[in-house]
Amino acid sequence: MKNKSLISINDYSKDQILKTLDLAEDFEENPKQRLLEGKVIATLFFEPSTRTRLSFESAINRLGGEIIGFSSQDSTSVKKGESLKDTIKTVSNYCDLIVIRHPLEGSARYASEVASVPVINAGDGTNQHPTQTMLDLYSIRKTQNTLENLNIFLVGDLKYGRTVHSLLMAMSHFNTTYNFVSPEELRIPEEYKMFLKEHKLQYKEHIDFTDIISEADIIYMTRIQRERFSDPMEYEKTKNSYMLRRDMLKGVKDNLKILHPLPRINEINEDVDESKQSYYFTQALNGVYTRMAIMSSILGVK
Amino acid sequence: MADSKPKLQVSAIKNGTVIDHIPAKHLFKVISILNLEHIKTQITFGTNLESKKLGYKAIIKLSKVFFKDEDINKIALIAPHAKLNIIKDFNVTVKRQVEVPDQIKGIAKCGNPNCITNNDNVNTIFYVIPKDNEKVVLKCHYCEKITDPEDMEVF
């Protein structure tokens, strides 16, 4: 994967995904490897995303690399009207790798085409966020000891949630069974159902999941945003029916783990945090190891 | 005798290309996809002609104009049943249907306002993806969102 940009999770084959996860495991066991000494990495955040930026910067620091960049476009020449192309071409001169977060969809793909160094997409609008998907896969494999033949429940905003879409695509390599749980207005889009049919994978859609929760190996919760609803009253009614509470976890499978890309609002009740099924905070830590793995393999040091 | 022969609704050309079976509602899109406004030779067209297959169709006859396959195939997105006749000396020498290309570059606008191609100076690229009953949709190379050719805007 040397010098290959990572823009969409589909850019990686099954084999490349598994290799990256193995490498991340290696970093988890042995995090102090100063493999990026002498390398400069640009983190260009055209919109703020504290969590993702800190995770990348923590990964770079642990590997001994140097960071340049910005955390919002307020203080940059973008404000003066500079095009993305010009910014990327200029920054390419100063670094060995670019990490980009941008509010427009397709911006990261375009950046990778004009940059002279590899690019990692840290989120382009509602489109892709492949390093998030990689850490989700890492968390699933770590808690289940496999990625094959799992039953995954994806819950909440399945229409706009990009983490859901990327995870769905990535898990299609592993004979996954999908259960989609969402309000009517936020159902999984047709194109993803078409994709699963083509790959002959099982899926079901549900409005409510209290009765079937015992089948799940993984529950992947997502945030339901108020602004997604045309009718605010509908939102008020809906938000609590997709809330996971500890008393719902009776009779679940032993291996069940609950994941969430964070930040959460109220979709997981705080009483779940102390349950043995909760995994979302460790999931965030796994992001550092997977990003270490992705960056060091792109820079060819691992 | 001349009266008994049905009259052509759009007069014949000696040499050139005839594009038939264009859905009438897409005639002007076809004109702009093929850049016909920049052609200096004679062009005649008819529209809202009755057609058994399409309801109403349009036809374009271009004198002394011959297209490259890759150019003419671009219209297949909105006129999948279009037929092409190459005319030499009033005779049809080649007859063929347009073929849907795998990829189209630089002719259509991405339907997603939040796509980089609608905000920076970036040429569009789409992958043509088959949908059910012979229809196709366009997947943007950049934002990965789907645009339906029926709603697509042409540059």
What would you say this structure looks like, in words?
The complex is a heterodimer of chains A (302) and B (155). Chain A is of the alpha/beta class and 302 residues long. Chain A has two domains: 9-129 and 287-298, Rossmann fold (3-Layer(aba) Sandwich), CATH 3.40.50; 131-284, 3-Layer(aba) Sandwich (Rossmann fold), CATH 3.40.50. Chain A is 35% helix and 15% strand. Chain A contains nine helices and nine strands. In chain A, the strands form two sheets. Chain A has a five-stranded parallel beta sheet with strand order 7-6-5-8-9, with helices on one face. In chain A, strand 6 (177-181), helix 7 (190-198) and strand 7 (203-206) form a beta-alpha-beta unit. In chain A, helix 1 crosses helix 5 (130-144), helix 2 crosses helix 9 and helix 5 (130-144) crosses helix 6. The longest helix of chain A has 19 residues, at 280-298. The mean pLDDT of chain A is 93. Chain B has 155 residues and is mainly beta. Chain B has two domains: 16-97, Aspartate carbamoyltransferase regulatory subunit, N-terminal domain (Alpha-Beta Plaits, 2-Layer Sandwich), CATH 3.30.70.140; 103-154, SH3 type barrels (Roll). In chain B, 7% of the residues lie in helices and 38% in strands. Chain B is built from two helices and eleven strands. Chain B has helices at residues 27-33, 69-72, and strands at 16-23, 43-51, 55-63, 83-88, 91-97, 103-105, 108-109, 125-130, 136-140, 146-147, 153-154. Chain B is elongated. At the A-B interface, helix 4 of A face loops of B.
